[in-house]
Amino acid sequence: MKRTIMSYMVATILSIAAIGGVAMQPIPSMAQTQGNQSVPSMAQTQGNQPVVSTPTCGEVVQGIVNLTSNLNCNGDGLIVGGDNTIIHLNGYSIKGPGQESSKVGLMIPNNDNVVVEGPGDISNFQAGILVTGASHVKMSSLILEKNQIGMFMTGSDNAQVEQNIIKDNNLGIASHSSKSGIYTSNLLNGNVLAGITFVNTKDSTVSQNNIDGSQNGIFADAQSSGNTISMNNVLHNVIDLNNANGLPTNINSNSARDNNCQVSNPSGLCIGR
Fold first, then answer.
1. 37-47 b/e (C-beta count within 10 Å ≥ 16 → b)
2. Closest CA to 157 of 139, 132, 140, 174
């Protein structure tokens, strides 16, 4: 990949991190009100968890959240407002105003042990899902498409991302200043700049994913270290595996093994090549 494209990719990640930081500041007060509108009360409970069955665009949600219709949003989609929130998309979609907006489909700010389960589709946002400052977030069985970034983790740890379809974004999965994530059994197709991108990301595992149709299949920058990339099918990308534009993996302590790919930078990261 040309250095200008890589610089644009990193700049995109950093710009969205900045936007996420700005968006996060008013969240505590939003748990009670949003603009001049009160967040709807949660009359139902399941165990000790409140149940939200009809969330609307821009709503701060917590507890057990069940989508019962598609959301077509002119602004942000849903904002998680508490730990241990579980969101079931139930086959519905959250659609935004476009990739060039500053809007997010699902924002998880500083909330731990959040679960987001499909099936369901999140599309047409700057970030389909933004996880910032959160721990132990699990996201599975989702379709993330036609966003600037499909799924973006920043300042987070122990994310678990599995069995998702992430396609036709500029960046599929991006991790910035995060650690100990697990990314497994995902299908990433046609994400223009990269399938999976690590910037200053540490001690994470990328395994058993299928990644094709990008400038970079998997990219890690020089500040990303201690990551394990194994048993992935990474094919039909300009560069399938890219460790910091050719930095030897022992320099930043990343490990690549048993990956089915054709082109790597540095050479030697693909099985038999």
1. eebeebeeeee
2. 132
Mean pLDDT of 210-222: 96
Lowest average pLDDT, out of 12-21, 49-58, 83-92, 262-271, goes to: 12-21
Residue-range domains of the chain with CATH: 3-24+106-265 (2.160.20)
Q: How far is CA 260 from CA 157, 225, 232, in A?
A: 27, 22, 6
Q: Are 138 and 115 in contact (CB under 8 A)?
A: yes
Residue 211 to residues 16, 195, 207, 245, 263: CA-CA distances in angstroms? 23, 6, 11, 18, 13
Nearest to 227 by CA among 198, 189, 194: 198
208 CB contacts (<8 Å, ≥6 apart)? 184, 185, 231, 232
> Residue 230's closest CA among 264, 196, 256, 211?
256
* Largest separation between any pair of C-alpha atoms in the chain: 62
Distance CA 2, CA 41 (A): 52
Please tell me the predicted confidence (pLDDT) of residue 271: 87
Using omega within 30 degrees of 0 as the cis cutoff, is the peptide bond preceding 266 cis?
Answer: yes
Q: What is the mean pLDDT of residues 246-262?
A: 95
**What integer best gives the mean pLDDT of the chain?**
87
Whether cis (ω within 30° of 0) applies to the bond prior to 119 is: yes
DSSP code of residue 124: S
Question: What is each CA distance from 122 to 116, 127, 128, 213, 256, in whole angstroms?
Answer: 12, 9, 6, 20, 31
